[in-house]
Amino acid sequence: MNKHYSRILILSGAGISAESGLATFRSSNGLWNNHKVDDVATIEGFQRNPALVHDFYNELKTEIQKAKPNAAHLAITKLQQEYPAQIDVVTQNVDTLHEKAGNQNIWHIHGQVNQAVCLNCGHILETWGDVDTQTICPQCQVMGMMKPNIVFFGENLLYMDKVDDALRHCDLFISIGTSGVVYPAAGFVQTAKYYGAETIEFTLDQTANNYLFDRHVYGKAGETFPPFVEALLQDIKK
Ligand code: APR
Description:
This protein is of the alpha/beta class. The protein is 35% helix and 19% strand. The protein has 10 helices and 9 strands. A 6-stranded parallel sheet has the order 3-2-1-7-8-9, sandwiched between helices. Strands 5-4-6 form a 3-stranded antiparallel sheet.
């Protein structure tokens, strides 16, 4: 790479959390192989059977709470601490492993499993405890209007003001552990490229939008991303 970057956007997907023991969505034993997306990741599914959706995310929450960040998450913290650039972490993941690793500037565009939103008053309830159809909103005291603060298919992404700014101004776009099949996030690389960023992806398998990346690093992110961070840090010493 041999260039000094001033603004870096890191887009992460489920693959960055795989080595922390969390299931991805589309691999052979992925979440979408064992659950119907329509039932647990759409507004219609939530309206049809909110208890089923709450059960799914309450179970996921328990798994996620036990997970620990891995070397890829920690390498992002090292990069943010030692590399003189603004570095945004735009994550599709609803786990909090970026936070646990000490990453900063984290934007959960698909929401977070440890949050629920009140459909009556908009209050965001932060909790690792179960949320269900009996949960009372601590702000408006209405029962049964809490929804997991997860962006369902068809809903708008969160923090898009921050993402748009980062996409327009980043000179290095790094994708880690995403299959590149779910839009709008899968289109971010194209926007970054349009505005002149160099693009690199870290993934296990060929991704759907791989043609938009200048470089591809195949392998487990916990093994491939830390050396990449070391190389970037060496470059600024030259
Ligand atoms: N290191 C690097 N990449 C990995 C690893 C790993 N250890 N393990 C898996 N991967 C890669 C896979 O090769 C794949 O490209 O991570 C990607 C995981 O793809 P998906 O399971 O589709 O997950 P993701 O891309 O995050 O899904 C996007 O889809 O269902 C929605 O909202 C959900 O945020 C999710 C979105």
